[in-house]
Design brief:
The complex is a heterodimer of chains A (about 300) and B (about 425). By secondary structure, chain A is of the alpha/beta class. Chain A has helices at about 10-25, 40-50, 70-85, 90-95, 115-125, 190-200, 265-275, 290-300; strands at about 30-35, 60-65, 85-90, 130, 150, 180-185, 210-220, 220-225, 240-245, 255-260. In chain A, strands 3-2-1-4-6-5 form a six-stranded mixed beta sheet, with helices on both faces. In chain A, strands 7-8-10-9 form a four-stranded antiparallel barrel. In chain A, a hairpin with a 2-residue loop joins strand 7 and strand 8. In chain A, helix 1 (about 10-25) crosses helix 2 and helix 6 (about 190-200) runs antiparallel to helix 7 (about 265-275). By secondary structure, chain B is of the alpha+beta class. Chain B has seven helices and 25 strands. In chain B, strands 7, 8, 9, 11, 12, 13, 15 and 16 form an eight-stranded antiparallel beta sheet that branches. Chain B has a six-stranded mixed beta sheet with strand order 2-3-1-4-5-6, sandwiched between helices. In chain B, a hairpin with a 2-residue loop joins strand 12 and strand 13. In chain B, helix 4 (about 95-105) packs parallel to helix 5 (about 120-130). Chain B starts with a strand and ends with a strand. Classes of the chains: A alpha/beta (about 300), B alpha+beta (about 425). The interface between A and B is large, with 61 and 76 residues.
Chain lengths: ~300, ~425
């Protein structure tokens, strides 16, 4: 007698594939926001499964801050080739050069907040009407209330008090001209689910996620990689440590953790034993208690 | 490998729902150090002499200002046995709308009762919605047992009252557990103060609820979501129907009937990603190819010739109205049912239900937000449906306003 039920990973996969197909069926110009991080990598591989043997019927969109880890860029180009998918790049530098945003200065300078403008410009330029992202509800309290299909007004903004109710798996992607949707197919996944899935499916990931030797400084309890974009304080002395990254954002704001985990199995063990959230190493979330909620309202990822 | 269980929590303002969720997360070690530190800091800032676990589930700043929860929030935790998704719904204003939303995808509902108060109006309301949405399992948590001296008599009285009330509802699996969310009794760890209670802890119940039969594995239903045509030299003639199985089991070689056209064919292959599989069942997402080339598109449904859904333009629903603007008879909408979108008109309101007393009110000509009513709609195209009781996927619809594009109602097909 066969068992007619799915494991939690199989069920999450089936749900995400259903959502991705729903996007392609309901929208004219969908896109996948690709950051090079593990969540958007999972999304790209789920997209391949969703349409196999056809190619992924939408482009990957990378909002390039110019402050990426070189490993991320190398991986991105490899993946685009591997999946045979179109790549669209939005450059934050262009937004700065056009005078649309002003570069931050000082020790905590980051292009994180500037990305929002480039992202909205790119969505408008290519007339994307649905932008899929790898955000998960377990990441952050503002994300816990996100819908799978998240409606954005003509200014690209999120209104948490006026979200459409989302029932069963009946997704409502209807919108007026100029509005768009953000869609989060892996909403119900946790960090652990993502790692287990990467392992189960044998999906390659950027080397950054594995333990490696790196020159870092410690600032406010976070290990930051040295880079041309990180301005050191007079008392900050770079040291070499064996580290890995739990998330994959911009170099100046993404914290590393000391680690010996050089395989996915070891990373899974480490995540299981970890007592800190993955975003605990992100300087962008430490800009106040409602940092994510504020950024989301204005159109952030 | 472990399974996924989705549950909803319902409670009124002060019955300790947030504390219970905080307790489940904390005692199952799903809370991280930095989250706990933040909660400890907020607790002492508020002058509490204990760690207020309810703060763990606090959401947006606009809510914290008002000390309320405005919407459904989703929480996650896992034990070695299962992964859990909690749809945490607020108990106050807009309760019906939010509860219905949270309940729509749940396998199980947690109903909280304050041991000091016993059954109150909201208990009836929450239980009725759980039964209306056909949540297969209910666990009634009698909370705040510490405030009634862990008295067995109090617990037994509430159990008897609830059983008497719930005999009017359609829920087959109801369990009861006496707990103190604040102190952790019988939540994850057994209470030492209630030796008279021989049953399982709440977490044990959640880990062992029999969810294997929650999906319909009898009546084969496959709503076509998207047609895959690669147009490559390698897959020149490939034509696959992508979708998520809504019920029953589809196997290679099975004869299938396509609705609404009525054509029949046989299954040539079933694919899951790049793998060929022999069979597919709910809730798998697969691609099915057929022996014959037929004109099949999104919104069509594959089923078996000897087991067909109803195909009709007149559909009777239990409708939950979710929008600020009231609705009248003869209003028109967009109707979404599985992957089909069509237009519909509200033909008739048979009666409205008072969800506290379950009394029927007839001669109603409009519905306002949070009303639940039995109605009849007529759709522009015939839809292939089952009763919600038989299949929660092929038995549910949403109504969308044609002007604002908002989702305005949820319907369970009678």
């Amino acid at each position: 007698m066969n068992q007619y039920y799915l494991t939690h990973l199989q069920e999450l996969e089936a749900e995400a594939i259903f959502v991705i197909r729903e996007v392609v069926a309901q929208f004219e110009r969908p896109a996948l926001l690709f950051s090079g991080g593990k969540d958007s990598i999972v999304l790209a591989y789920l997209s391949r499964k969703a349409f196999y043997p056809a190619r992924i019927p939408f482009p990957l969109v990378h909002i390039d801050t110019g402050h990426n880890f070189p490993e991320t860029m190398e991986y991105r180009d490899w993946l685009v080739n591997e999946l045979g998918v179109e790549l669209v790049v939005g450059l934050v530098q262009e937004t700065i050069d056009a005078g649309r945003v002003k570069e931050e200065t000082g020790y905590y300078a980051s292009r994180n907040a500037l990305q929002t403008v480039t992202l909205l410009d790119t969505i408008e330029k290519y007339k994307f009407d649905a932008a899929m992202g790898g955000a998960r509800r377990d990441e952050e309290k503002a994300r816990a209330k996100e819908r799978f299909f998240s409606h954005r007004d003509e200014f690209g903004q999120w209104d948490p008090k006026n979200q459409r109710p989302e029932l069963w798996n009946l997704f409502n992607g209807r919108k007026h001209i100029g509005e768009h949707f953000r869609v989060f197919p892996i909403s119900n996944w946790t960090e652990m689910d993502v790692w287990q899935y990467l392992f189960a499916e044998n999906i390659p990931i950027p080397k950054l996620y594995y333990a490696h030797q790196r020159e870092v400084i410690e600032r406010d309890g976070v290990l930051l990689s040295t880079s041309p974009w990180l301005k050191l304080k007079p008392d900050e002395k770079p040291v070499i440590k064996r580290v890995r990254f739990r998330t994959c954002g911009d170099m100046p704001i993404t914290g590393a953790v000391e680690s010996e985990a050089d395989t996915i199995e070891k990373i899974i063990d480490e995540v299981a034993a970890s007592r800190k959230t993955e975003r605990g190493t992100r300087a962008d979330d430490k800009r106040g208690e409602t940092a994510m909620e504020d950024r989301k309202k204005s159109g952030y990822f | 490998m472990n399974q996924l269980l989705r549950f909803t929590t319902a409670g009124s303002v002060d019955d300790g729902k947030s504390t219970l969720i905080g307790r489940l997360l904390y005692d199952s070690k799903s809370i991280f150090e930095d989250q706990l530190e933040a909660v400890q800091a907020s607790s002492s800032k508020k002058g509490f002499d204990y760690v207020d676990l309810s703060l763990l589930t606090d959401g947006l700043c606009s809510e914290r200002e008002q000390g309320i929860t405005i919407d459904v929030a989703y929480r996650y935790f896992a034990t070695p046995k299962r992964k859990f998704i909690i749809a945490d719904t607020p108990g106050h204003i807009q309760y019906t709308r939010n509860m219905v939303t949270g309940a729509s995808t749940a396998n199980l509902a947690l109903i909280l009762i304050d041991a000091r108060k016993g059954l109150i109006e909201q208990t009836h309301r929450h239980s009725f919605i759980a039964s209306l949405l056909k949540i297969p399992h209910i666990i009634v948590c009698v909370n705040k047992m510490d405030l009634v001296n862990f008295d067995e008599v109090v617990f037994e009285k509430i159990v008897q009252d609830y059983k008497a009330f719930s005999s009017k509802l359609e829920v087959s699996d109801i369990q009861f557990v006496p707990i103190s969310a604040l102190h952790g009794d019988n939540v994850v760890n057994r209470s030492e103060k209630m030796n008279w209670y021989q049953g399982a802890t709440l977490l044990h119940m959640l880990e062992n609820a029999h969810i294997e039969s929650d999906y319909n594995h009898i009546d084969a239903r496959f709503p076509v979501q998207y047609v895959i045509r690669p147009h490559t030299t390698e897959h020149q003639d490939f034509r696959g129907y992508a979708g998520r199985v809504a019920g029953g089991i589809f196997r290679n070689g099975d004869e299938v009937l396509i609705l609404p056209s009525g054509f029949t064919s046989r299954i040539k292959s079933i694919q899951s990603g790049s793998h060929l599989v022999n069979e597919a069942f709910a809730p798998m997402s697969v691609v099915i190819t057929l022996e014959n080339e037929l004109d099949i598109s999104r919104g069509d449904m594959l089923c078996k010739p000897n087991n067909q859904p109803q195909l009709n333009q007149d559909v009777d629903l239990m409708l939950c109205w979710m929008n600020q603007r009231p609705v009248n008879i003869n209003s028109k909408f967009v109707v979404r049912h599985t992957t089909l979108e069509t237009r519909g008109i509200l033909k008739e309101i048979q009666y409205k239900l008072d969800i506290n007393t379950l009394q029927r009110m007839e001669n109603v000509d409009k519905l306002v937000m949070n009303d639940i009513a039995r109605v009849r709609i007529r759709t522009a195209k015939a839809i292939a449906f089952d009763s919600y009781r038989k299949n929660r996927i092929t038995g549910s619809v949403i109504l969308v306003d044609e002007g604002t594009n908002e989702t305005v109602a949820a319907g369970m097909i009678v």
